[in-house]
Specification:
The protein has helices at about 5-15, 20-25, 25-45, 45-55, 60-75, 90-115, 120-130, 140-145, 150-175, 185-210, 215-250, 255-280, 285-295, 300-310, 315-345; strands at about 55, 60. By secondary structure, it is mostly helical. Strands 1-2 form a two-stranded antiparallel sheet. Helix 7 (about 120-130) packs across helix 15 (about 315-345).
């Protein structure tokens, strides 16, 4: 059993490898800027959106497909699957987080979307897609800056990356099925293209880099470049999406507010409930903040990709998933600040519990 001060030592090596650069630190500003740029392009140069929309193969946008691949590839290549074996050392925080990710949040997102956005099924579907896709990458940045448990974060994100391959298509198909009939094979194809393909490519590339350059070179040189590529791909995707959605935003701002209200309420409920449950179970601060961050996050890349695949880049569902991108970053920052302020009040002394510490 270790306390908080001891756990900081064991996490130091991991924290060095989790750094936030210019893009990540100001991601909200970047996202907002590129959303505005996309809106202006679609409004001032409507031929731009029409040209991009015409670049299709088998009914799918080629530019967006390329961007989405480069959004997913860096995410999946950076997962350390070997950390999964450590899960048996700290089952309770792991179980709480996975239950929140795969049971509580999907049902909560469906309930809120079906209630508040009942008049617009497309927006409801977009919110649902966000709710059934837990994040497996960006949460590591938030976890580090919240001074959470790095080992636990690596384990949960690694397991979630595998569960997404198995559970995402069935869950999305089930909840979306209340609104429209979605061919499961189509959703499964999207999962294969946007998850399995970059996953397999990542495994091959990572093994090659490890063998030729070494693991240290990968972490210090190759990984930071991939992280930048993922964010650039996201920003380019936003330009394309918002060039399609520009008229909707300018003419229907209330729709943005309705979607935002559902997302904000969903985040507030998840943050509060998971944090409270973990605290009442006598988890350490590191375990509590890590479980809460991962339980409340969304893998917006997958949600965007699925909405585009099923309904098109100009659809209401795609629009709702993009609004989710804008809100997650500032909400995570706000939660981290609140958690750090609560830490000395709720965990003023080292807590010794029967829970096997993930920091050891």
């Amino acid at each position: 059993m270790t306390n908080e001060s001891e756990s900081q030592l064991s996490n130091s090596d991991y924290e060095e490898s989790v750094q936030m650069g210019l893009f990540e630190k100001y991601l909200t500003l970047w996202i907002l800027s590129f959303m505005i740029l996309g809106i202006l392009l679609g409004w001032l140069f409507p031929a731009f959106a029409l040209t991009l929309a015409g670049l299709q193969f088998a009914g799918f946008s080629i530019p967006i497909a390329i961007c989405l691949f480069f959004m997913m590839f860096p995410t999946l290549i950076n997962i350390e699957y070997g950390e999964i074996k450590n899960a048996i050392k700290f089952p309770k925080p792991l179980i709480i987080t996975l239950v929140a990710n795969w049971i509580v949040n999907p049902f909560l997102g469906f309930l809120l979307a079906s209630t508040i956005l009942a008049a617009n099924p497309g927006y409801a579907i977009g919110v649902i897609l966000l709710a059934v896709s837990p994040c497996t990458a960006m949460v590591l940045f938030w976890n580090k800056f919240a001074k959470g448990n790095i080992n636990l974060g690596l384990v949960i994100t690694s397991i979630n990356s595998i569960l997404i391959l198995l559970l995402y298509a069935p869950l999305a198909s089930f909840f979306i099925g209340f609104y429209v009939t979605v061919p499961f094979i189509t959703l499964l194809f999207g999962t294969m293209f946007f998850l399995v393909l970059p996953l397999v490519t990542g495994i091959i590339v990572k093994r090659h880099v490890y063998n030729t350059r070494g693991q240290d070179w990968y972490g210090r040189n190759f990984k930071p470049v991939l992280d930048k590529i993922a964010i650039v791909a996201l920003l380019i995707t936003l330009i394309v999406l918002f060039s399609f959605q520009g008229q909707v935003i300018l003419t229907q701002p209330l729709d943005v507010l309705w979607i935002s209200s559902v997302l904000l309420l969903n985040y507030a409920i998840m943050f509060t409930s998971v944090f409270f449950v973990c605290y009442k179970l006598n988890f350490t601060y590191k375990q509590t903040v890590t479980s809460t961050i991962i339980a409340c996050s969304s893998h917006f890349e997958i949600a965007i990709a699925t909405a585009i695949l099923l309904f098109g880049p100009g659809s209401a569902a795609a629009f709702a998933t993009v609004i989710g991108v804008l809100w997650e970053v500032p909400l995570m920052v706000a939660f981290i600040k609140i958690a750090l302020r609560l830490k000395p009040k709720l965990w003023s002394e080292p807590i010794h519990t029967s829970i096997k510490s993930a920091d050891s």
